[in-house]
Amino acid sequence: MTREAWLKLSAVVGAGTLVPNNLLAALLADEQLKRSDFGKDFVWGTASAAYQIEGGWNEDGKGESIWDHFVHHHPGKIEKHETADKADDFYHLYNDDIELMHKMHIPASRFSIGWSRVIPQGTGQVNQKGIDFYNRVIDKCLKENVEPWVTCYHWDLPQALQEKGGWVNRDVIKWFEEYVGVCARNFGDRVKNWMVFNEPAAFTALGYLLGMHAPGKMGFKPFWPAVHHTVMCHGAGGRILKSNVKNGNIGTTFSCSSVDAWKDKEINKKAAVRGDVMINRLFIEPTLGLGYPVKDLPVLKHIQKYIKEDDEKNMPFEFDFIGLQNYNRDVVKYLGLVPGLHGITVSPKKLGHPVTDMGWEVLPEGIYRIIKQFAAYKGIKKIIITENGAAFKDEVVNGEIHDPQRTQFIKDYLAQVLRAKKEGVNVGGYFIWSFTDNFEWADGYRPKFGIVGVDYKTEKRIVKDSGKWFSEFLKA
Ligand code: NOJ
């Protein structure tokens, strides 16, 4: 164990205390983590999303998305009223960014297609300039030996479709099929790795239940149909990609976190089961052919109303891989007042647990536990960590960004991914969220997740120490 690791160990547990296994594993990772431990087929990359980095929100025929609309019409919902109108200006700087990825030895880049950039009204007329942009991005990636991993939907529904009800309107299934078909036919000759959705639980809950994200809808009334139509689109999108992309590697991604009951009390344990359904099980189970987990969360029976004949047959799809996106662990306690769920998550800050700048608990073992939880489903062939990373406050000092906390976070979580892999789970890749700092939705530009910093006045990129570490790790 390194000196640094010993110091950290003493600081956390104090001299003479027994060291918990997970902490020990994390500390040992300091000196033991090597790229080769993960095997030569393991995929390494960084992840991003169209709205969070591209900018060029109304350029070259792009239509308005629900996020363009949300930030312009409900500025109070975003920290400091910020927008991603320009963001990282990836729309113009993609060449430089992809060259930087190459220089940093990053073998794969996960990014998303902006639906309203390629079909401005969501259905009908295709915008050739939008297609050309993604063609240029894909071709540049291939030229720089950066493998493209493309997400079809990362939360930016065309506003024109939202005006017809968006995810609440069952017609979204046919609109989505049309859109995925356009993506597959235009890019599927060169892009082999696809993800249908990014975190369906997050965009339906934040956008159609809690009103915190675009389109700002609130309540169970819009939420239940949005959930069911998204599940239907999962299957539909998967099938379209499979039949249009030769040798395609077709997956989708889920937000997830391991859930514990507060103080291990019986009443909280029951609340934790319900929390686990909402956080982890709601979308994966119908996708695997297990139906909605109504037994463990009875309020889900309201979805029944939206299930049409044949839907149960069309909900499942056999994905080649399942993307897991994990940042934290959740502690749940009973709270009768919360409709349907009768529980809430307890703030880790209040519990005195270490947190990131998002207020999310840092618990490396959490990623191991959630990998094992998903691996226990029979239908999952392969798991890829399609997002993991941390927001911490950064400071530019003499043109450099020293971010030891972020590097340590990545190392500690990676050690736990390796632990699951060594125990026989088929984990096939790891993507850091994110390559560059970017627009963190309702939190604006404050949380910094990048391993490359961005000066938003000049759009200058600064490779952080975490980026330098990742680059060295990949090179070795
Ligand atoms: C979840 C989302 O996929 C991504 O858009 C977001 O920025 C990160 N995780 C961090 O919150």
Distance between the termini: 20 Å
Q: Please bin the fraction of helical residues.
A: 25-40%
CATH superfamily: Glycosidases
Strand order of the largest sheet: 1-2-3-4-5-7-10-13
Name the shape in a single word.
Answer: globular
Name of the CATH architecture:
Alpha-Beta Barrel
Helical stretch tally: 17
Give the bound compounds.
Answer: 1-deoxynojirimycin
Mean pLDDT across the residues is 94
Summarize the structure in words.
The protein has one domain: TIM Barrel (Alpha-Beta Barrel). About 40% of the residues lie in helices and about 15% in strands. The strands form 4 sheets. An 8-stranded parallel β-barrel has the order 1-2-3-4-5-7-10-13, surrounded by 5 helices. Bound molecules: 1-deoxynojirimycin (NOJ).
Question: Which features does this protein show?
Answer:
single chain; about 475 residues; alpha/beta; TIM Barrel; eight-stranded parallel β-barrel; about 15% strand; binds 1-deoxynojirimycin
